[in-house]
Amino acid sequence: MSEYIIECRGVKKWYGEFQALKGIDFNVKKGEVVVILGPSGSGKSTFIRTINRLEEHQAGEIFVNGIELNNDVRNIAEIRKEIGMVFQQFNLFPHLTVMDNITLAPIWVRKWDKPTAEAKAMELLERVQIPEQADKYPGQLSGGQQQRVAIARALAMEPEIMLFDEPTSALDPEMIKEVLDVMIVLAQTGMTILAVTHEMGFAKTVADRIVFFDYGLIVEENTPDNFFTNPRHDRTKLFLSQILH
Amino acid sequence: MSEYIIECRGVKKWYGEFQALKGIDFNVKKGEVVVILGPSGSGKSTFIRTINRLEEHQAGEIFVNGIELNNDVRNIAEIRKEIGMVFQQFNLFPHLTVMDNITLAPIWVRKWDKPTAEAKAMELLERVQIPEQADKYPGQLSGGQQQRVAIARALAMEPEIMLFDEPTSALDPEMIKEVLDVMIVLAQTGMTILAVTHEMGFAKTVADRIVFFDYGLIVEENTPDNFFTNPRHDRTKLFLSQILH
Amino acid sequence: SQPKVEEVKSNEAAAASTTQEEPAAAPAPAAQATESRLDTVRKRGKLICGGNKNLAGFGVLASDGSFSGFDIDYCRAIAVAIFGKADDSTLEIRPLTASDRPIALQTNEIDVLVRNTTYTLSRDTEWSANFGPTTFYDGQGMMVRKDSGIEKLEDMEGASICVQTGTTTELNLADQMALRGINYTPKVFPDAPSTLAAFQAGNCDGFTTDKSGLISQKQELDDPAAFQILGVTMSKEPLGPAYAHGDDQWADIVDWTVYCTFSAEEFGVTSANVDDIAKTAEDPNIRRMLGVEGELGKGLGLDNDFCANIIREMGNYEEIYNRNLGPDTAFSVPRGLNSLWTDGGLLYSPPFR
Amino acid sequence: MTTATDINTAYEAPPRTEVGVLGWLKHHLFGSWFDTILTILSLGLLYVVLVPSMRWAVTKANWRAITTNILILIHGPYPQTQNYRVFIAIGLLVVMGSVSLFIYRGENVRGRRTMTIIWAVSPFFIWYLLAGFKGSSFLPLIEYSKWGGLLLSFILAIFGILASFPIGVLLALGRQSDMPIIKWMSTVYIEVVRGVPFITVLFMAQVMLPLILPPDVRVAGMFRAMVATALFSAAYLAENVRGGLQAIPRGQYEAADALGLSTFQQMYFIIMPQALRTVIPPIVGQFIGLFKDTSLVAIVGLLDFLNVSQSILSQAGFLGAQKEVYLFAALVYFVFSFAMSSASIRLEKQLGVGQR
Amino acid sequence: MTTATDINTAYEAPPRTEVGVLGWLKHHLFGSWFDTILTILSLGLLYVVLVPSMRWAVTKANWRAITTNILILIHGPYPQTQNYRVFIAIGLLVVMGSVSLFIYRGENVRGRRTMTIIWAVSPFFIWYLLAGFKGSSFLPLIEYSKWGGLLLSFILAIFGILASFPIGVLLALGRQSDMPIIKWMSTVYIEVVRGVPFITVLFMAQVMLPLILPPDVRVAGMFRAMVATALFSAAYLAENVRGGLQAIPRGQYEAADALGLSTFQQMYFIIMPQALRTVIPPIVGQFIGLFKDTSLVAIVGLLDFLNVSQSILSQAGFLGAQKEVYLFAALVYFVFSFAMSSASIRLEKQLGVGQR
Ligand SMILES: Nc1ncnc2c1ncn2[C@@H]1O[C@H](COP(=O)(O)OP(=O)(O)OP(=O)(O)O)[C@@H](O)[C@H]1O
Ligand SMILES: Nc1ncnc2c1ncn2[C@@H]1O[C@H](COP(=O)(O)OP(=O)(O)OP(=O)(O)O)[C@@H](O)[C@H]1O
Ligand SMILES: [Mg+2]
Ligand SMILES: [Mg+2]
After folding, report:
1. Which of A188, B131, E5, E16 is in Cβ range 3.0-4.6 Å of B125 for a Cys bridge?
2. Distance (Å, rounded) from C-alpha B52 to C-alpha B43?
3. What digits encode the pLDDT tens for the residues E268-280?
């Protein structure tokens, strides 16, 4: 049991009558880096969001750190503390400075005092290489800088797991590189990472495992090498042919 | 004079005290496909937007089809009829159906009657391969579909020139391909195209010329072959090294 | 300082100068001078009379959409004097609040104001208005709860009193209480219903207004028997019609309309017998009044039989009074001062001759 | 682990955690102890408030004050011999309203266009039906001073809404304009009118207008009130519309420019439809306010619904009927305000404001 | 063509097409014939309106009606022997306001915190300063029925604004809530209160309250009016806030959830600051309306500013001074409404609502 930090068994999810997840069995070990691929609408985002309960699953079980995700509000709070999430659209709080964006949750959820939280925030901003932006507002930053702030904000809670939902797809090419660099460093430090991304370079270099979704199911699970050079499933081959144009 | 469909001489543009364009000399022949590259903030968007007067230039001259762009409102209207523009964020009108988005300008600016405009619109929707979406609203379409509607909307005015400002950078990888395919077909039909894009595949295969901007100046102008394999300028080399990771 | 104020006021009303431009204001009095009020009214085809819609017995909007009441009947009488009849085509009642009635007069919105308005010197001057003969002699009274133990004003030390704002009532109250050295708290309200509602709700110990109003409004209370009206009369409240300065012919028409109803009662002419009496009467006073003899009506610019018309349509003073306030109504206000001079009251008409 | 060899594109039906009305009740009203307490408390509150009120309404209240006066409540002093005209107008509107519900839902374009034309023409038709013609014996002239009650309140509110709308939109655009004169004038107008109580405006109109106009030109009080209402409301509307304009992304203007649309076309087809849609709630709130503020026109001597109600209290038979009359008035205002509010929420939903 | 061998990162200065005030005037007021005509027309209008008004105000108007009564206009029947307390309160507020302008602009965190505490405490201080204490000879008790004029209007408006704010926010959240009971209750409250005229509410409070309360409990009219104002305003505020809530992207809620913020923290730190910011214009419009509507409290017998003004008109000596009195009242309302409006526009700019 304790071998896995995330365990999903038969997770199913409906939006109204539409079934977005059809029974996902999927486990992640501590420190693993997993990249999730798949065509648009295949349920990647839905799945990653059920893990920190931004979406409620209606069947199956999800355990994070051994705690089950169910209607118990305390469990949800407990699990969310351990999971950081980075969104495609950054979702920074536009009315707060970068510093306040990062320290808000540590101060009010982790109950750190302000100097501690700010010291931690500065450390993280240095790690994502934008310490000089601490007092700006998100609207004053470029997209790449905003996404790095979002990563720092998630890391400030010192989570054990980081979820990334297409973190670079709203960015310009040069900025993509900035963000990927941060993610790569993060992966190398041993963080458990679950990332939906179409950056094949990232998948090839740092992923321990690649998972391919379609129609709400896991179609293929493979090592990066095998996945790209020797995919097992026809659907995967079709997908790769379109991506690697 | 009539050799060029677009002629720019010493175009300068300030935002307040900040100079975004520092004297651009640049001409485009009818039927040419020009790709504009450059780092973020180098003035690519600003330049392309001065050509249909979304931004006003403060020095220099711009001629489109031999008509000078100046404060004369009639000239501006005349020129805008001949130029179609596709934006990064699509900018479809969310309260109008796809059909109405496309036919609005032909009916009210070109003064076509409705059936003519709708016939033309259907023809274009078939060309961008989404005729079945005519009665939907933009919010009901995927990003790739929206961008194809935006292209159809611009083409419906039967412009002689198409401007693209990073038309694919808000899209998912699979959708990028859909849009690029449409653009490639368009280039092959002999349309004059000016495109800001970081899709190197597009630049390599269909561009007649590549222009590289930095700090509000044209740093390098070259054929695609030479540009990628044998760039003249150091800045270009640096840029290429970051993009082609 | 009084005359000075008056001068300023009357100038202003006459010259009609406001924030608007000066030149446009200048011709206004001239234009008014050329056309008499009577001509204006005739040309318009109807009389516009400022009235009340909220005072039971005096001016009320009835269920059939018409206005009725003692004051409204005088509006009618004036319309009859001019047009020979009073109906929708010859009379329009403009319901007014206490505080906009002077403006309505000054701006010629209305031709005459018959809205339980007390005749005072300052109103006479500062409203740029004149008052006709008093139609109803009222006096301010005080109503209290029977169980309050208050029998006279002197018992009201420290009491709170509900009173309507913008009225002479408010000022009389202050004068009378100051005179007697009584401390009290006035609670003022913008209109009659809210004043009474506050009293009903127990917000004040006393409720003051004209006695006629007290009598009628007492009926509006949930339990009229639990209240009593004190004997004291705190003021003189002569109520009568008012009209703007500047047209004496018009003033005469209004005045003699009122006197017509007084005289008719004095001579025993009623709506029932007016036509017979016109044929048979021998008293020259009556004959002149009814227009059978002489040219009195023509002198006013009216039909010679204007008074006969009034009595035929509206009745004499007694009929008007009884119809609205008399023993058969819910209010049953005793005539008191409003009796003919011959009965010891104050109603006295100058002779028709 | 799981390696599907064939992709399953079939769907299972979603689990039914709640079935039917009872399930819904259980889930929503008694889902937790907190819900349950709330449910019981509010039922209790309803009981405490409603039961005595109903008992009073049925046994004690003297509703004759209302029933006897229902006609003047509806149309004020409008002559009762002619009041079938008012009821024809009401009937017409009801029929048009019901027919519209069908027609505008359907797909019949010709029918919708016809209906729109009918709606556009009907105000003039109804106006002449109500006002009549001088000297006509079939539809004799009814003077404006005779229009009152709900009829008057409606006319004021509807005119106020219809007329303030274009003025408000123009003012909002004016305030955003690049031309400083237009900008200043719009701003001054908006700020001055918003800054002054409606009563004061009405009062000034009452005092000033007769002084400006030649003495024999008389503007009926109703028109004065109509104009004052519209001008007053326009200033508030302008600010609401401005809020909506601020929510339109720049890209919409740019796209319209790039297509070569003129400024007017851009506003009419692109900007305004979106701007107005986002500010439906405040605009409707304002219109409800306008409807209720029509009662202030009493100051120019008009007999609107609330004033007729109040005057009932002075009728000899109903001297003590405050509670009944005020309750009834509140109820009538509520019914119409609520209808407006509901219609607006339906509209909001149809236009998809709430979704994102 | 141009092939820069070295990148020019230097900037030229922008061309100066207009210099100084004259240049600005030329460009903006006389830029085209249309501008020029507009400029001349509006100057003409100003002349036609302002000059005679000023002449009237200076030569004809009888301002003694105002000057003689200035004290009761400010504080109504508050005893004039004690009215230094009112002026101390006003002075205090002015001083606090001016000091705040400096403090809140500066960077001194301690100073700002102190100032905020002073603001929080001041209402209680001022209240006791004005109300006094029973039996005290230094600050004798002044009964609430003696509070009037602008003082009363302000108290009603400020209390109405401060109290309706939290209630309105809660109602808006309630209406968006998932719990049907809370949703219904909020919706019913909002719709009923919005649907009924303020006058009716005040009147009902007047007639009904004494029937509900035990006979010896008397609530001062001022408190009744304060509560009614706040409750009434809250319903409108709720709808405005709901408009703001609808403008918040879902991503903001999700990000807050993902960080583990509680529902309250989420609302307080993330959602509300943004929601309120977008609806500043309608909220301010509503508060201006509230300030002006305070004049309706006359119906429960309170002497607010407008009622004091009107009562001047029944003083012998000033019976005909309508124009002066109403103009002055309009001016006073305008000054304060405009101040609110300007402050809100500054706030909007500071918070960057208009920029995108
Ligand atoms: N709130 C919702 N209501 C209804 N259907 C939804 C909702 N969210 C997602 N879906 C549907 O569920 C399916 C899976 O969506 P999801 O966002 O998980 O896909 P994805 O794999 O992340 O796609 P993408 O690459 O476009 O982000 C899609 O068909 C989508 O239309
Ligand atoms: N409206 C504006 N006001 C002030 N500065 C502006 C404005 N628009 C653009 N700029 C500035 O002008 C410069 C050029 O902007 P532009 O958008 O043309 O760059 P770009 O090359 O298109 O960059 P990107 O790849 O990020 O789109 C940038 O430094 C930008 O900050
Ligand atoms: Mg997704
Ligand atoms: Mg750009």
Report:
1. B131
2. 15
3. 999 998 888 888 8
